[in-house]
Design a protein that fits this description.
The chain is mainly α. The protein folds into six domains: 174 residues, Rossmann fold; 53 residues, no CATH class; 103 residues, no CATH class; 187 residues, Serine Threonine Protein Phosphatase 5, Tetratricopeptide repeat; 238 residues, Alpha Horseshoe (Serine Threonine Protein Phosphatase 5, Tetratricopeptide repeat), CATH 1.25.40; 50 residues, Winged helix-like DNA-binding domain superfamily/Winged helix DNA-binding domain (Arc Repressor Mutant, subunit A, Orthogonal Bundle), CATH 1.10.10.10. It contains 47 helices and seven strands. The two termini are 55 Å apart. GO terms for molecular function: adenylate cyclase activity; ATP binding; DNA binding.
């Protein structure tokens, strides 16, 4: 019986009831060791009927074995793998070592887990419980947290138990938590009464137990049964963890030595298999009767062919108290016991624990385990294997190579500080030119993402020069990365002559190298304001890009945004996004979505921008990468400003928190500029010209200052700062004349109209419109119609003014740019025409997820296909689709396809 846990039990039961009704539930139970988290999970599992119960446990010594805990959880569902998409099923088979093959993306493993669990829940509700989550291997933890955050309208409950304190950690943002506190006095007293021997049930003994245990259920039980009255007297209460470890250790030390050694094997073992432990005991010449004696002690529990210690504190007490030499003997025995059972990674990890110093043979086996873990997508585990391999490697060159491998995998696992430390150590020992180039590329990537973009630029330039003679292909990659950084606020001031890294007479069949050549020349020409040459080289690069090469598409798209080539940028990022979706590469999708927003925004596809930004925000939350939500949130803020919508307070608070507390690297500058643009637009709408100019003056990224050119120059004119407007126009003119982009030429003429004498303005407006007709930038075109209409109305040319104001109003309404729609309507009325504005209250207001589902369904996708595209369950798709039908008033997919949604 669980005393004093009625509230907690009711909370858990409610989650299961909700799941039966199609509302998924997640919860992390956390608290001090021994507070009864596991007991609550046991109680819930026993109480649930008609539910598929899945269970796993984090094991401290198992942390370097990728997906070990996840494998235990999903093992009962693996026969259903053929019910989920084949690429996802294959990812799980590879992750669990059931098949060999190419490297698997860990994101695809996470998506597959979500699909498998929710598919099982279509037949019967699923209760998945993860005990000791703080000791999960990192790969399992990432997958399970992703699953928890993506569950929605599913018959699934996912529970974690997490130990607080003592250096353990299990960060679970996005997952609700429940603190399991100590028992109240009455409940604690009831526990003691249940467990004290009849002869010891007196108030003095009870009070002593209560004083020592402090309301901790495990301590109450163990102290009631394990300590004598004399032991309970006197001293102040110890911290519960220390007290319980002392109790367990004291119990163990009362046992014969053979039993203590057997229990140490169980504590050091991470397989949980009876056969492995007994074989290790045999190797150490421990008598077979020690098994039964250990079980009888109550410190070891057996269930079928599995063994475990009674509580994690038993493991820590026994293991930490054992001499180092004895622990080494035990690990070597466990390694020997695993010989021939098909678990080389587990075996070599025990051998590594037993190593007394450098050992080339063990290091080589650890390296092999690292390679296998990396191929399975277990990057954190791979980092552990490679790092330990480096520590045991006698040769400096192998130490450097293995430390770099550890750093690369630590970075892939988002272990930033560890990756930095490892790559720095690797560079100190490396002397191979190819390895040095790879090390510097990783150093630069880390700086790009979480450090100084200028520092990254400096690293890339120096590394490119150093690699020219020995690894020219790497030198070219590094040079292109440096050129891209310089365009987005990461210029260190060091110049790299492209001639140094571009070798004449390269392989004519190497299209990737040719594309990189062209990109480098394009970005170098742009940095020197040689715009015609830059555009020409960009066009050449676009001809050679391959859709499946995500890295190359990223370089091409970024260069196209910088040079104002909307078409190339749109194609590059759309291809990159398609590549990521098709392969299940979640980070590629997460990278592409906010960048695709640039061409989508400029081409007037604002609802698509909203969908992309919202999906990127949800995805960054799901994968536990809050820094990657900054740019999507900034896009949402800009759209809300231009549409006159309030930003949800929680989203703006999240944006501010991310910008302030998370390193954004190269994303910092464009994110800040989007926010400044949004704040400037809101100020301009409120008539606060001085505030508007303050915000837009701080914009720094050239691509964004050119995108916002009309806003910035208009703000300067309204703030009575013609000198500032003229300066910005002067920066735009050579770009427009050099690139000959119609949108840039249109912006120049628009600005000239604002700065010209009244009589000269119409000619510039007419020229601007002529250019914008050939540019797919409807917002800027509408801005020009509005400004021209305002000018004509003030000049008393009302009939001509109405034509332009009417076109502006129509475009703004199409974009749902309510503030400027209101301005255009007001100007139309002043020009003598009754403006027929659309009633925005009649527009269908769908959530971003509903919009995405509606759009994909309208393209003819089934619920399963939409689910695979969005990385949610089919049931969740059905839930959002029903909401779409209810809000739009339609009842079929065909009718939905006829609607204009956004």
């Amino acid at each position: 019986m669980l005393h004093g846990r009625d509230v907690e039990r009711a909370r858990l039961a409610a989650l299961v009831d909700g799941a039966r009704q199609g509302r998924a539930g997640t919860l992390a139970l956390h608290g001090d060791p021994g507070t009864g988290k596991t007991a609550l999970l046991d109680d819930l599992a026993e109480a649930c009927h008609g539910v598929t119960v899945l269970r796993t446990q984090g094991i401290e010594s198992e942390s370097p074995l990728a997906f070990a805990s996840l494998h235990r959880l999903l093992r009962p569902l693996l026969p259903r793998l053929d019910h989920i998409p084949a690429p996802q099923a294959g990812a799980l088979d590879l992750a669990f070592g059931r098949q060999d093959g190419d490297a698997v993306d860990p994101f695809l493993v996470a998506v597959a887990t979500l699909s498998l669990v929710t598919e099982a829940a279509e037949h019967q509700p699923v209760l998945a419980m993860v005990d000791d989550a703080h000791w999960l291997d990192a790969a399992s933890a990432d997958v399970l947290l992703f699953t928890a955050r993506r569950l929605d309208a599913d018959q699934v409950v996912l529970l974690f138990s997490v130990r607080d304190g003592q250096g353990t950690s299990f960060s679970h943002p996005g997952v609700p938590s429940l603190l399991i506190r100590e028992l109240d006095d009455a409940s604690a007293r009831a526990v003691v009464e249940d467990h004290l021997d009849a002869g010891a049930k007196d108030s003095v003994t009870t009070d002593r137990v209560l004083r020592q245990a402090g309301g901790n259920p495990l301590a109450l039980v163990e102290l009631s049964t394990a300590l004598t009255s004399d032991q309970l007297q006197g001293a102040e209460p110890l911290p519960v963890t220390a007290a319980m470890e002392r109790v367990f250790l004291d119990r163990a030390r009362r046992l014969p030595e053979r039993v203590q050694r057997f229990l140490l094997i169980v504590a050091a073992d991470d397989s949980g298999r009876v056969a492995t432990v007994r074989r290790a005991a045999e190797i150490l010449a421990i008598p077979d009767r020690a098994f039964a004696e250990a079980e009888a002690s109550g410190l070891m529990l057996r269930a079928g062919d599995t063994l475990r210690v009674r509580h994690p504190l038993v493991r820590s007490a026994l293991y930490q108290a054992a001499p180092t030499s004895l622990r080494g003997d035990v690990h070597r025995a466990l390694a020997a016991a695993l010989e021939g059972v098909g678990e080389p990674d587990r075996q070599v990890w025990h051998d590594a624990f037993g190593a007394d110093g450098p050992d080339a043979a063990i290091a080589a086996r650890l390296d092999g385990a690292g390679v296998r873990s990396e191929r399975r997508g277990g990057h954190a585990a791979a980092a552990d294997f490679f790092e330990r391999a480096a520590e045991l490697s006698p040769a400096a060159d192998l130490r450097a190579e293995r430390r770099f491998s550890a750093a690369r995998n630590a970075w892939a696992a988002s272990l930033t500080a560890r990756a930095r430390s490892l790559v720095t150590a690797a560079r100190g020992e490396a002397d191979d030119p190819s390895l040095l180039a790879d090390i510097d590329r990783l150093r630069g990537r880390i700086e790009v993402n979480v450090g100084s973009a200028a520092t990254a630029h400096r690293i890339f330039v120096s590394a490119a020069v150093a690699a020219v003679d020995t690894t020219p292909a790497r030198a070219l990659d590094l040079a292109v990365a440096a050129a891209g950084l310089a365009a987005y606020g990461g210029d260190s001031g060091i110049r790299l002559d492209p001639a140094i890294v571009i070798r004449p007479g390269g392989d004519p069949d190497d299209s990737r190298a040719r594309t990189l050549h062209d990109l480098l020349l394009a970005m170098t020409a742009a940095s020197q304001h040689q715009w015609p040459q830059a555009v020409e080289r960009l066009r050449d690069a676009a001809q050679g890009a391959v859709d499946g090469d995500a890295d190359l598409l990223a370089h091409l798209g970024q260069a196209a945004v910088h040079l104002g080539d909307d078409t190339t940028a749109g194609h590059a990022f759309a291809a990159m996004l398609g590549t990521g979706r098709q392969s299940g590469a979640g980070m590629t999708v997460l990278y592409a979505l906010p960048r695709q927003a640039f061409p989508l925004f400029l081409s007037g596809q604002w609802s698509a921008v909203r969908r992309s930004a919202d999906e990127a925000h949800r995805l960054s939350t799901s994968v536990g990468q809050p820094a990657l939500s900054a740019t999507p949130l900034a896009w949402l803020a800009l759209l809300a400003a231009l549409r006159g919508e309030d930003v949800a307070p929680d989203l703006r608070a999240e944006l501010d928190e991310v910008v302030e507390h998370h390193p954004l690297g190269i994303l910092a500058a464009p994110t800040a500029d989007l926010i400044r643009w949004a704040d400037g637009a809101r100020a301009a709408q409120a008539g606060a010209a001085e505030v508007a100019i303050h915000h837009v003056t701080q914009m720094r990224v050239p691509a964004l200052t050119r995108m916002a050119a009309i806003d910035r120059i208009t703000a300067a004119v309204h703030a009575d700062q013609p000198e500032q407007a003229t300066e910005w126009l002067g920066e735009l003119v050579p770009f427009a004349q050099g690139t000959r982009w119609p949108w840039a030429l249109g912006a120049v003429e628009h600005a000239r109209a604002l700065l010209s004498p009244q009589a000269a303005a119409p000619a510039h407006f007419e020229q601007s419109l002529t250019h914008y007709v050939n540019a797919a930038r409807p917002f800027d075109l509408a801005r020009t119609h509005l400004a021209y209409g305002q000018h004509l109305r003030r000049a008393q040319h009302r009939v001509d003014a109405r034509l332009h104001l009417r076109r502006a109003l129509e475009s703004f309404e199409d974009l749902r740019a309510a503030p400027l729609s209101a301005v255009a309507a007001r100007e139309l009325r002043a020009a003598g025409e009754t403006a027929r504005t659309r009633d925005v209250s009649t527009l269908v207001q769908l959530t971003p997820m509903e919009l995405q589902v509606a759009q994909l369904v309208s393209q003819g996708m089934s619920n399963k296909e939409v689910a695979a595209h969005c990385w949610v369950s089919p049931r969740t798709v059905g839930f959002h689709l029903r909401n779409c039908f209810a809000k739009t008033g339609v009842s079929s997919r065909g009718e939905l396809a006829q609607l204009s949604l956004g």
